Amino acid sequence: MSDPFDLGAYEEPQAAAPSPSPLAPDWLDALNEPQRAAVEALDGPVLVLAGAGTGKTRVLTSRIANILGQRKAWPSRILAVTFTNKAAREMRERIAALVGPMAQDLWLGTFHSIAARILRRHAELVGLNPSFSIIDTDDQLRLLKQLLAVEGIDEKKWPPRMLAAAIDRWKDKGITPDKAGVGDSGFADGRAPDLYRQYQERLKVLNACDFGDLLLHNLTIFLTHPEVLAEWQEKFRYVLVDEYQDSNVSQYLWLRLLAQKYKNICCVGDDDQSIYGWRGAEVGNILRFEKDFPGARIVRLEQNYRSTPHILAAASGLIAHNEGRLGKTLWTALNEGEKVLVRGVWDGEEEARSIGDEVESLQRAGSRLSDMAILVRAGFQTRSFEERFIQLGLKYKVIGGLRFYERQEIRDAIAYMRVVAQPADDLAFERIFNVPKRGLGDATLQLINRTARAQSIPMLAAARILAETDELKPKARSTLRMLVESFDRWRVLLDQLPHTELVETILDESGYTAMWQADRSVEAPGRLENLKELVQALEQFENLGGFLEHVSLVMENDAGGDGDMISLMTMHAAKGLEFNAVFLPGWEEGLFPSQRSMEEKGTEGLEEERRLAYVGLTRARQRAYVYFAANRRVYGQWQAALPSRFIDELPGDHVEAQSTQGVYGSSAPAGGGRFGTFAYDAPWLTAERNLQSVGRTRDSQGRTIEGSAHPVANDSSAAFAVGSRVFHQKFGYGRVQAVDDNKLTITFDKAGTKKVIDAFVEKA
After folding, report:
1. Which domains are present in the chain?
2. Which of 7, 197, 338, 425 has a CB 3.0–4.6 Å from the CB of 17, allowing a cystine?
């Protein structure tokens, strides 16, 4: 019998044929029916809707092996693209196991790596030399900063990161400078398109491009030089794409152009797992595949090999509430397993304690920590779990990010605290000496260092001396004097203010908070949330010294290296991973789904948040735990928290709902107590049913109206006139500004203007 991988019959015999390793004769038999259909449908466009845990990588690698085994194309005429180097390496290793050394000849890699190879062949067509450099983010920001300086644009008001984000968005959409609209970016009063043009011209002078250029230049070449496009269309007889739901507009256009001749394009993806809209991914790319490629075959992979039936049914019931999806229902042949546990707790601390207890219980039962993960919506949520695990002696690792106290903004804030508490801490002083930027450069720092060493005094003391001499230029001397005076002032306040207020004062008066508020990068909101979480962490300690000692001990806790460790990460970072037990804390309105996402994107944002919940649930093999807290600290204030609407959307037959002792209080009467009728004696809970029980309701437009965690004794029929002075147990004293039936608009003395229910206030 002839070897299916004997390349002698291929149409490009001039290339030396590698010695292939024959496939196992039953390799196709190892596939289920839909997988096999996707692997054998080699001619024409194919969309493989691969649900979570359904074996999409096996389909991709087997499909490539089948193309080669059927002698449909030479390896060098197969293009396979994915999004990460890790995925590309894994795919190449799997293909090599099937077909041997031929895998080396495939055009297999990330979008950017393949685009870079093509661009080096035709660089001169876009004004570059083939030896062009690819700059990173730091170089990009440095170049943009230079442009802003030349144009006289204040970088404090218009940060380079904001311009970089606007340019990246244009490139993700395949928009060149001549097509960039003024209304597409509010940067510098409409000057962004011209700055984009100057940036691109400067890159050409430097013979460089950024990552966005790799695909953008490819598109420019293809659209302006049809003979080049025809060459590459002929080159790639088969095109395969992994994670198609994560593609942006540029990637989409690039793929469409390359596949237009043979139309043998196979896109594998899951519209229900499109969670990267914030970085340019367009779920619409996968939704319109049939329109882009008429006659396309759709293959649904629905048999899940990862999770139990209850977990899959809960996730499927949740995602079914999305309208923008092609639709599929996951199923499994595995045993029934445990239902998804939904647990209500009193607050964030109780949430961390409860999860820590459950982790220890699983560990005692024989589970490894490495088989468990905590998936959060926002990075700041990890702190409470890190603290708890350190107390319990449980080893952990933070995936896709730093541990809480290792993050830049936290280290900076703690450095300020250390200098205030201990003026001789030179390392801390040196860290924040010019953070935020004050115009104190390296020369000033070196002079302070020399003075400190010469006189054997701390750097802050040396700075105090130099602030009163003529060794520095007047501007630097004045700035340094203001910094020294600030530290002196804060040190006096150390004994006068609660340490939490002092830290907030330091962050505000130093300009550190304002620095991140002005930063328009994607990371900035998360950094601000982390700073608020830091202030909240301070409340657990009697004074600033106690907190700083705690941080030192935490930093000594070595969570690195190998070993058995539980994983902490965001749900975004968890995509593609799986664990036996998954904990999903913080399922509350405003936190998850994210209020910011819903406000910025409306229904589209809500549906992406729901897809994120689906991804979180489907990371679990055997156990999934969903937590929500009745109270949550937000911006330093306690707020009654609503259970996430996603909890209400989980099908009750596959969920076990419970609360930990203490949510209601050990002596709370059935159906009453602090949370009124908020109890789990009904078959299932609904968010609307429980709004009033946590002190909130909705107005006619569905917007949440604030109440209180517990209503005050009050005659609900009492009339509140505009101008009435009232008292609210949470917000304090205020004055009624408007009355709408039983809903009052009140301007509170300290909490600002809020809508509340009249039953939650009393006349003052």
Report:
1. 7-120+218-302 (3.40.50.300), 133-206 (1.10.10.160), 311-403+559-677 (3.40.50.300), 410-554 (1.10.486.10), 695-763 (2.30.30)
2. 7
